[in-house]
Automatic annotation (TrEMBL):
This is TetR/AcrR family transcriptional regulator. Residues 96-206 form the PsrA tetracyclin repressor-like C-terminal domain. InterPro entries: Homeodomain-like_sf, HTH-type_TetR-like_transc_reg, HTH_TetR, PsrA_TetR_C. It holds the Pfam family TetR_N. It comes from the Bacteria. PANTHER family: HTH-TYPE TRANSCRIPTIONAL REGULATOR BETI, HTH-TYPE TRANSCRIPTIONAL REGULATOR RUTR. Residues 18-65 form the HTH tetR-type domain. The keyword Oxidoreductase does not apply. SUPFAM superfamilies: Homeodomain-like. It comes from Amycolatopsis dongchuanensis. The lineage of its organism: Bacteria, Bacillati, Actinomycetota, Actinomycetes, Pseudonocardiales. Keywords: DNA-binding, Transcription, Transcription regulation.
Length: 221
């Protein structure tokens, strides 16, 4: 007779298998190119309805994958934010955005799929909001935004919003490209995740500190 503990353990193992498989397939093929049936089969589930049973809709599955990684990333980020609290150096706050994500991927070991999964979701109009919502719910990101605002008091609001979008795009896709290269065994510009993070922090810091051209053609802060 199967005990409740065994049933719970079995259900937990099934959920983990589905999450891992869905993340990989979504990363490699795109979210809507992959059916729940394909995920169930690739995860070794005889029941093709397993995905729906354990997670509900595809949007619910995407949210579950995001949260699976978000908790550890937030833990790393919160610790780093605590270290730089009160800083007036843009680079410190940019580092708080980049390094926790990269460190989490490095800790997972190779290959990883989450960066490519994130890039796929962020280009999907129907699902992008899930990733944004999950990110904005992280307390540390609010602290980073406040820190950047303090470092750049003269940056016009519209330019601030524009550069935040630029920074997000660059970060999402550069990390995904490195992850893809590592998975495929192709050369990468930097030899380690740490060095890749340093290069990305350099670029993003320059982006935030770049001069602003006004409509008349002049520049200023």
């Amino acid at each position: 007779m199967v005990s409740m503990t065994q049933k719970t353990d079995r259900a937990s193992a099934t959920r983990e298998a589905i999450l891992t498989t869905a993340e990989r397939l979504f990363a490699e093929h795109g979210v809507f190119a992959v059916s729940n049936r394909q995920i169930s089969e690739a995860a070794g589930q005889g029941n093709n309805a397993a995905v729906g049973y354990h997670f509900g809709t595809k949007a619910d599955l995407v949210r579950a994958i995001a949260r699976r990684h978000g908790e550890e990333t937030e833990r790393l980020r919160a610790a780093m934010v605590k270290q730089v609290a009160g800083s007036d150096d843009v680079r410190d706050w940019v580092g708080c955005l980049v390094r926790p994500v990269v460190e989490h991927l490095e800790n997972l070991g190779s290959p990883t799929w989450f960066a490519r999964f994130g890039a796929q979701v962020m280009t999907d109009p129907a699902l992008r909001g899930i990733m944004v919502e999950e990110a904005l719910s992280a307390p540390s990101l609010h602290q980073i935004r406040v820190g950047l605002d303090r470092c750049l008091p003269d940056l016009p609001p519209e330019v601030r919003a524009e550069r935040a979008d630029m920074a997000r795009q660059l970060m999402v896709h550069m990390v995904a490209e490195r992850e893809r290269a590592l998975a495929e065994g192709t050369p990468t510009p930097r030899t380690s995740w740490h060095d890749a993070a340093t290069g990305l922090i350099d670029a993003l810091t320059g982006l935030w500190l770049a001069p602003v051209t006004n409509p008349e053609g002049g520049t200023g802060r």
